[in-house]
């Protein structure tokens, strides 16, 4: 959202409406500028509802003393001056200020730099969208009018670098921000408590990490134009190091989004209890649906919302779905019989032997005792031999192997290392479990990674899918994202013995009849 979408305001009309604002000034070696920055805070913000917090980050000059002096001489608003016991860095200083705002009941916190690079006079404009509840954060942007940034003295190399990095970041996040690198911001504390900002870096790319958190949390960001000013302030940012940190951060955030890597600071949303259908390309879902017997009677174990069951109904199948969560009646697919059931219970709530096929799609890795479950399932099928359609993640996938090579192994919310997985399998270990549990394996296939689901159904995703499929033909164990198995339950020894006894009795009777 840009400024022209909001009604114009004038400074003398600022009304905080009972809200409290903290103007938080981060300061390091700002002895020459801090008093001027304070004096430029506009008069409409001289209010009991406004407090100024200065945190001197262990400056090597007299920043702290200058702040105290201004505090003693002026009473337009409350000023609190603090000094860190040791240097926390730009990001670390912000963490302190935001925590102060949250703990002391402020509604908004405005980030201002003590070197005077960002105009305090623009604070009334930046606060307005928050007062109107049209934003969760407002960023002052120097790049809405890019030529104005050059006229304001932004060095050309920074001007170019700002745009290159912002373009890359917008592409990675799917955003359209004009600038990611302005340090002039106003946050709602109600929004800040929703993101784990205290996990962020203490370095200068803290600003990027908190943007990522807001975007992933789907919090509203508004950009407004601010003037660009470069004076005699000393820049403490190493440009190349900063750019490298931005690049690494964006890759980590994107990897977290597509479930290749888990990063706690980007874990801002609640776990998903449902799954999305992966149709229209080769996936575990399309393979399972294709393996269904048209018109067959199917038990879908761990059916979730019943999305797969609905597709099976289209093939003329009769479907019973079992899961610990049963969807609301309005969300249930028609003709599917849903049963609430904890998959780790030892008994089955239905007569398993009545089904032609049993679907176990991405279920076995969630069980506490998968081998015992498969034993019980086989026993429950009695003398019948239903076909088992089973899919599970392949822990031997090349991405997890590479992460191990790099010393990286952590769980996430989705994917192979889903935090809810209790057991992990390779092709060999999955085959061994089924064989030892008394199943005859009919088919084993490798399933490629769901690139269209991860990065969008586009040409690039389809190309990666084709490449992954070709690599699976070379090595299933290395390049398969998931394991697909069709198997058949063999009769247990007890059942086979009963079959043998009853069958022998019938043969004896037939033999006696023929002899007579």
Which structural traits does this protein have?
14 strands; 516 residues; 37% helix; seven-stranded mixed β-sheet; 2 domains; Spore Coat Polysaccharide Biosynthesis Protein SpsA, Chain A; alpha/beta; Rossmann fold
What is the structure about, briefly put?
The chain is of the alpha/beta class and 516 residues long. It has 18 helices and 14 strands.
Widest sheet: strand order? 3-2-1-4-6-5-7
Number of helices: 18
Oligomer: single chain
Q: What is the CA-atom radius of gyration, in angstroms?
A: 31 Å
**How many domains make up the 3D coordinates?**
2
CATH topology group of the largest domain: Spore Coat Polysaccharide Biosynthesis Protein SpsA, Chain A
CA distance, first residue to last residue = 97 Å
Secondary-structure content class: alpha/beta
Helical coverage, percent range: 25-40%
Q: Class of the largest domain, according to the CATH hierarchy?
A: Alpha Beta
Q: Kindly estimate the percentage of residues that lie in beta strands according to DSSP.
A: 15-25%
Number of strands: 14
Tell me the major beta sheet.
Answer: 7 strands, mixed
* Regions with little confidence, pLDDT below 50 for 5+ residues: 1-11
CATH architectural group of the largest domain: Alpha-Beta Complex
Which word captures the global form?
Answer: elongated
CATH superfamily of the largest domain: Spore Coat Polysaccharide Biosynthesis Protein SpsA, Chain A
């Amino acid at each position: 959202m840009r400024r022209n979408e909001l009604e114009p305001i004038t400074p003398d009309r600022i009304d905080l409406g009972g809200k409290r604002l903290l103007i938080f000034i981060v300061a390091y070696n700002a002895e020459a500028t801090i008093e001027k920055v304070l004096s430029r805070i506009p008069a409409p913000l001289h209010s009991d509802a406004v407090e100024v917090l200065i945190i001197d980050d262990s400056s090597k000059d007299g920043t702290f003393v200058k702040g105290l002096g201004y505090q003693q001489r002026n009473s337009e608003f409350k000023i609190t001056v603090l000094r860190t016991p040791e240097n926390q860095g730009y990001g670390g200083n912000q963490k302190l200020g935001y925590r102060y705002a949250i703990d002391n009941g402020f509604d908004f916190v405005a980030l201002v730099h003590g070197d005077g690079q960002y105009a305090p006079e623009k604070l009334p404009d930046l606060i307005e969208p928050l007062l109107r509840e049209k934003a969760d954060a407002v960023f002052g942007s120097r790049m809405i009018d890019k030529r104005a940034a050059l006229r304001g003295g932004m060095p050309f190399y920074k001007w170019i670098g700002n745009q290159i990095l912002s373009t890359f970041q917008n592409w990675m996040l799917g955003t359209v921000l004009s600038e990611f690198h302005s340090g002039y911001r106003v946050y709602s504390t109600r929004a800040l408590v929703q993101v784990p900002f205290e996990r962020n870096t203490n370095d200068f790319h803290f600003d990027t990490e908190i943007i990522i958190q807001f975007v992933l949390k789907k919090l509203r960001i508004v950009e407004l134009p601010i003037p660009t000013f470069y004076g005699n302030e000393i820049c403490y940012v190493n440009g190349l190091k900063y750019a490298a940190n931005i690049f690494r951060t964006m890759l980590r955030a994107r990897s977290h989004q597509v479930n290749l890597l888990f990063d706690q600071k980007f874990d801002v949303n609640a776990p998903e209890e449902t799954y999305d259908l992966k149709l229209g390309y080769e996936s575990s879902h399309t393979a399972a649906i294709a393996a269904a017997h048209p018109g067959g009677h199917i038990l879908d174990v761990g059916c979730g919302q019943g999305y797969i069951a609905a597709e099976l109904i289209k093939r003329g199948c009769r479907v019973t779905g079992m899961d610990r969560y049963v969807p609301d009646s309005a969300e249930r697919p028609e003709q599917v019989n849903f049963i609430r059931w904890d998959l780790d219970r030892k008994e089955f709530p239905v007569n398993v032997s009545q089904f032609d096929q049993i679907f176990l799609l991405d279920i076995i890795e969630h069980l506490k005792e998968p081998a015992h479950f498969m034993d019980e399932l086989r026993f429950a099928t009695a003398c019948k031999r239903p076909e088992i359609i089973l899919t599970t993640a392949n822990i031997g996938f090349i991405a997890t192997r590479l992460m191990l090579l790099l010393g990286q192994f952590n769980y996430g919310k989705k994917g192979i290392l889903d935090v809810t997985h209790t057991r992990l399998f390779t092709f060999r270990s999955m085959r061994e479990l089924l064989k030892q549990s008394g199943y005859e394996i009919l088919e084993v296939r490798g399933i490629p990674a769901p690139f269209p689901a991860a990065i969008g159904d586009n040409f690039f995703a389809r190309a990666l899918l084709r490449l992954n499929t070709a690599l699976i033909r070379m090595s299933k164990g290395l390049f398969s994202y998931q394991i697909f198995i069709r198997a058949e339950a063999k009769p247990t020894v007890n059942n086979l013995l009963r079959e043998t006894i009853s069958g022998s009795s019938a043969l004896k009777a037939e033999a006696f009849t023929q002899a007579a």
